Each structure stands twice: as structure tokens, then as C-alpha cells.
């Protein structure tokens, strides 16, 4: 089953303290941890593409060594 949490777009003006942003960042961190930083498995679990996962990692300044499987 997929966890869909990315349905709401956040505007540029929204504060970094916004609970939705914190929840999205936390969900990404948790999924990365659960899947041993495997980008493909994490993206699949979150119901997003790997490209979207990479954009969100950059957006939330998440620094992790990702395992990338082709």
C-alpha cells in the first residue's frame, strides 16, 4: 500500500514551520530510513517518482547517501 501525502501543493510564502511541510519531510525521512536509503523503494512507498523524491530531498535539504538501483 502507498502513503499518499503529497496531494497538497505548498506556496512559496508558506512558512517552513507549516505542519504540512514538517509532515512531508518527516514522511520522507521515515521512508528513507525504513528502506535503507533506497531511492526506488522509498519513492514507490510514497507513491511518487524518483525524480520527485530527489526534488523533495533537495527542497527539504535532506542529506542522505541514497542507494540507487537501475
Provide a descriptive summary of the structure in words.
With 70 residues, the chain is mostly helical. 49% of the residues lie in helices and 0% in strands. The protein is built from three helices and no strands. The chain has helices at 19-34, 39-46, 50-59. Helix 1 (19-34) crosses helix 2 and helix 2 crosses helix 3. It is globular, with a radius of gyration of 12 Å. Residues 1-15 have low confidence and may be disordered.
In short:
By secondary structure, the chain is mainly α. It has three helices and no strands. Helix 1 packs across helix 2 (39-46) and helix 2 packs across helix 3.
- Measured by DSSP, the beta-strand proportion falls in under 5%
Largest sheet: none
Shape: globular
Number of strands: 0
Number of helical segments? 3
Structure class: mainly alpha
Rg (CA only): 12 Å
| Poorly predicted runs of 5 or more residues | 1-15
Cα distance, first to last residue?
Answer: 22 Å
pLDDT averaged over residues: 76
Provide the helix percentage.
40-55%
What is the string of SSEs from the N terminus onward?
Answer: HHH
Name some characteristics of this structure.
70 residues, mainly alpha, 3 helices, disordered N terminus
List the helices and strands and how they pair.
Layout: H1 19-34, H2 39-46, H3 50-59
Helix pairs in contact: 1-2, 2-3
